[in-house]
Amino acid sequence: MKRFKDGSWDPSNALRIMTYVAKRRYQFGWQLGNEPNHLQLLPFGFAISPEQLAKDFKKVRTLLAQIHGINNFLVGPDVTQPRLAAILSFIIIAVVIMRFFMDSRDFSRVNFHAPLSGQAKVIVTKIVNIKMREEIARIEEHFVSICLTWRTILEWNFNYTTEKRIITLMKALSPAYVRIGGDRSQFVLFQAVKGKENKLLGIKTFNISGEEFVNGSWDPSNALKIIKYVAERGYKFKWELGNEPNHLRRFGVTIPPEQLAEDFKQLRGLLSTIPGVHNFLVGPDVTQPRGNAMGYLQRFLKKGSSSLDAVTWHHYYVRGEHCSLPQFYVPQTLDTLLRDIKEVDEVISQYAPGLPRWFGETASVSGGGADGISGRFVAGFMWLNKLGMAAQHGLYKRGAITLMAMNLHPEREANLTLKDIPDHDIDEFLFTPDGDITSRRIKLNGKVLEMGPGSFFPTFQPIRIPRANQVILPPLTYAFYVVPEANAKACLESTKKRP
User: Fold this and answer.
1) Residue 255 neighbours by CB under 8 Å, 6+ apart
2) Could you list the residue ranges that cross the membrane (predicted)?
3) DSSP conformation class of 3
4) 394 or 25: which leads in pLDDT
5) What is the mean pLDDT of the chain?
6) Bigger pLDDT: 92 or 186?
7) What contacts 363, CB < 8 A, 6 or more positions away?
8) Percent of the chain predicted with pLDDT > 90
9) Full set of structural domains in the chain with CATH
């Protein structure tokens, strides 16, 4: 630790590493020094009083709070094993640091309960303020939709049973959009085949053949075929052009954002000239804020925002081959989503103000998922974090309140007190794994969710908690709590305003 002549800590060097870490979005926890009660015995030959170290810790905390994008998590003081001097130092530092914590942060209360077994159980109590009169944001009914990739379509072994399961899951999210994208969408062409019809889906099937990219302007001839085909049959398609255009160098292709903007204008022109086609265009489906993504988006929107009905971008928390199990539920990973949303919103607000923002493609992790993790119960934490308060069930009448909750602690239960709502019955939808958090099977209120005979969607049956304003969420679980008779004014008035 670099120190000034008066003995106080000099943060100049630490500030450099904090800034370095923040710019690269590394998720570090922090500590200051090592065994401070033991320094006078080392060759350095100096001592730091615990009171001075406590002031230094306050200085670190202040620095962390001021640097945007950094993980504000601080531990210490790392004293040696229990001896009298170490214990006294720890007590003095802990009192000062905790006092600073309580003054500067909204801390939950921690209660200790001793069950009959005699084993201590920790419950974290949190008050949830629900503002029933204020509308913060509004989502459309297609908010939760479906995305398939050409890799899925071309490589999966589709049959009557698997297709019926997929349709069942899609219907559960309806009304919704179905997007077909992914890397291979860059290399497919459309060709209608007469006489082929899928009886289950009730739609025509298409033969797809690949073609290499050619740098330069877009050739719309093949796209024109599918646009006319769709218009003739009255299908209601929405359109986009390309997939992750800022990330094409891995395929040996480069499309400048200005050229892509011209291509979007050309597609918009085609859509407007063909009778019966739905003239709705979204894009450019850039990757999340890493590397050149935001620069590409800026340059594209400068030239092409007038061609769009919505701005799309992609988001994944981490890459599948680089992730670990805890990353699926620790706040340090989940909190990166809000940071990315803010960064994209800043660009869109400047260059395409007023346009809706869409996740054109998203999931828990990229690269095809994480083997043994992303298709399991634990992935639900990432999905629910992404859905946030916009979760929409359609199970209850207007004016009901739906609270989505996640307990990310591996050991502590969470006691949630719902404030500012009357004492009404609460319907609980508690999701737990059938085993550990890597289980493929998920339980709803203790019952495993499984498709019934004929691939019918399972019934989501809540547990009714009579006249309650408190709920308890077990460790590493998630839940929806619905207050059907809340009559929230913001929801009722929002319904009246809808066209």
Assistant:
1) 215, 242, 245, 248
2) 84-102
3) B
4) 25
5) 75
6) 186
7) 147, 316, 369, 374
8) 17
9) 11-75 (no CATH), 123-131+400-491 (2.60.40.1180), 146-193+204-391 (3.20.20.80)
Decide if pLDDT at 99 tops 60: no
Reduced to 3 states (helix: H, G, I; strand: E, B; else coil), residue 205 is: strand
Which residue, 137, 238, 173, is CA-closest to 392?
173
* The two structure tokens encoding residue 103: 């003054």
Q: What one-character DSSP code corresponds to residue 305?
A: G
Strand partners, 192: 206
Average pLDDT over residues 398-410: 82
Encoded amino acid at 232, one letter: E
Burial of 273 by CB count in 10 Å (0-12 exposed, 13-18 middle, 19+ buried)? exposed
The helix-helix angle for 293-304 and 257-273 (nearest 10°) equals 40
What's the pLDDT at 426?
87
Rounded CA-CA distance 98/410 in Å is: 23
First to last CA, the chain: 63
Half-sphere exposure of residue 53: CA atoms within 13 angstroms, side-chain side = 26
> 328: closest CA among 282, 386, 284?
386
| Model pLDDT, residue 219 | 86
Tokens of 3: 């120190």
Residue written as tokens 């921690």?
110
Instruction: State the Cα–Cα distance between residues 66 and 322, nearest whole angstrom.
Output: 30
Question: Among 285, 294, 307, which Cα is nearest to 359's?
Answer: 285
Distances (CA, A) of 88 to 34, 74, 79, 241, 403: 16, 20, 10, 66, 45
**What pTM was estimated for this model as a whole?**
0.62
* Helix H or strand E segment including 406: strand 401-407
